[in-house]
Amino acid sequence: MTVITCIDDLKQLHRRRAPKMFYDYCESGSWTEQTFRENTTDFDKIRLRQRVAVDMSGRSTKTQMIGQDVAMPVALAPVGLTGMQCADGEIKAARAAKEFGVPFTLSTMSINSIEDVAEATRHPFWFQLYTMKDQGFVSSLIQRAKDANCSALVITLDLQILGQRHKDLKNGLSAPPKPTLANMVNLATKWQWGLGMLGAKRRHFGNIVGHVQGVSDTANLAAWTAEQFDPTLDWDKIAKIKQEWGGKVILKGILDAEDAKMAMQVGADAIIVSNHGGRQLDGALSSIRALPSILDAVGDQTEVHLDSGIRSGQDVLKAIAMGAKGTYIGRAFVYGLGAMGQAGVTKALEVIHKEMDITMALCGRRRIDELGRDILLVPEDFEGRWQAS
After folding, report:
1. 3-state percent breakdown (helix, strand, coil) of the chain, nearest 5
2. Which of 86, 112, 13, 59 is nearest to 371 (CA)?
3. CA–CA separation, 32 vs 24, rounded Å?
4. How many other CB atoms are there within 10 angstroms of residue 54's CB atom?
5. Residue 187's pLDDT band (boundaries 50, 70, 90)?
6. What does the alpha-carbon distance between residue 256 and residue 266 come to, in Å, rounded to a whole number?
7. How far apart are CA 326 and CA 74, in angstroms?
8. Is residue 286 part of a domain?
9. How far is CA 46 from CA 319, 326, 375, in A?
10. Residue 249 forms beta bridges with which residues?
């Protein structure tokens, strides 16, 4: 029996138990994967200040994200195809998040639908929206999220055009997997996954199939999605979506201070410093390196959250101490889901919470609101010294 002590343990189990195309979908970036790698390695450049002879009793990691009470400043990020990592993956992840006391964000490109998750959890969750050319479909998604009592809309801004991910192309990524010889050989070694999928509620994109005219199966779906991401998305469209939603809005994919200022102008309740997990613009800064300049631009006018690269509770603590009000884990919870289902997501949250709590104590802090840059040692050139444009 494998003893799980860190997120990497879950990653290794995930690799053994999930089909290759879905593990690779999770564990990959675009082009050379430079940004994908630096999202994690740049956290290593930040050091922590140990403090001693400080009362460490009575600690709490509780705080709020966009006014919602959370057990720690961590939300589950929207991840497409989650229901292919494990049968009913979105439902299992949402249940784990609910029980732990952190937000769950459902992706537009989920396998389980908005309605599936709402019925299974009966608890408000956040919904992530991709803007599509089909305005009627976008409006219907927004209304469906309202009907499901979603408590925030997360609008992704950095996927107007899909970044090239070599592994997905080579694997012929699809949901469900196409019955090619290579896929069948690989799936034959993933019997536990296969047994689970036999009883899965869905095996295709539940938010799309059956909700778009002419899209009734995977063949129709592939043709539709290939043309649907909206390259004309601009700030005016974002403002209109915010107005149509009428509730809390989080803008995901901010990596530049000027874009952060524009996000404030449209009235975002929070922005997420994110490079899509290194899956879009390869060669962009890691999220943690981009964070300081965006915090400087935004000040206290809106909440700043961080996504991309978090693999430990220490990473969470570093981001919060730098000034973020919340963080998101994507791959870290997917590793757990692919490894052990709902129990694996819970284990990932437990691991991150324990690491954060112990590290906070050893830095001489007892509450989230006590965390600041004074517990960090940040290299002078951490943000990079770039030639003036």
Report:
1. 45, 10, 40
2. 59
3. 14
4. 11
5. very high
6. 16
7. 6
8. yes
9. 10, 18, 10
10. 153
The whole domain housing 107 covers 7-377
Per-residue b/e over 294-324, b at no fewer than 16 CB within 10 Å? bbebbeeebbbbbbbbbbbbbbbbbbbbbbb
Rounded CA gap, 328 and 230, in Å?
25
Number of domains in the chain: 1
Residue 373 tokens read as 């840059």
CB 128 within 8 Å of CB 252: yes
Tokens of 353: 């919470």
Question: CATH number for the domain including 273?
Answer: 3.20.20.70
Do the domain assignments include residue 388? no
> Residue 11 falls within a domain, yes or no?
yes
Domain membership of residue 358 (yes or no) is: yes
- Three-state secondary structure along 267-280? CCCEEEECCHHHCC
How high is the pLDDT of residue 356?
98
DSSP 206-231: TTTTTTSTT--SHHHHHHHHHHHB-T
d(C-alpha 84, C-alpha 203), whole Å: 7
Task: State the pLDDT at residue 218.
Answer: 60
Mean pLDDT taken over the chain: 95
pLDDT tens by residue, 74-124:
999 999 999 999 999 999 999 999 999 999 999 999 999 999 999 999 999
d(CA 130, CA 154): 9
Q: Which residue has the tokens 């564990």?
A: 27
Side-chain half-sphere CA neighbours of 53 within 13 A: 0
Catalytic center residues: 276
Amino acid, res. 81: L
Instruction: Tally Cβ neighbours within 10 Å of residue 33.
Output: 18
* pLDDT tens for each residue of 142-160: 999 999 999 999 999 999 8
Which tokens in the block code for residue 247? 């509730």
120 in Cβ contact with 83 (< 8 Å): no
Tell how far CA 89 is from the center of its chain: 14
Closest CA to 76 of 141, 17, 127: 127
188/303 Cα distance (integer angstroms): 47
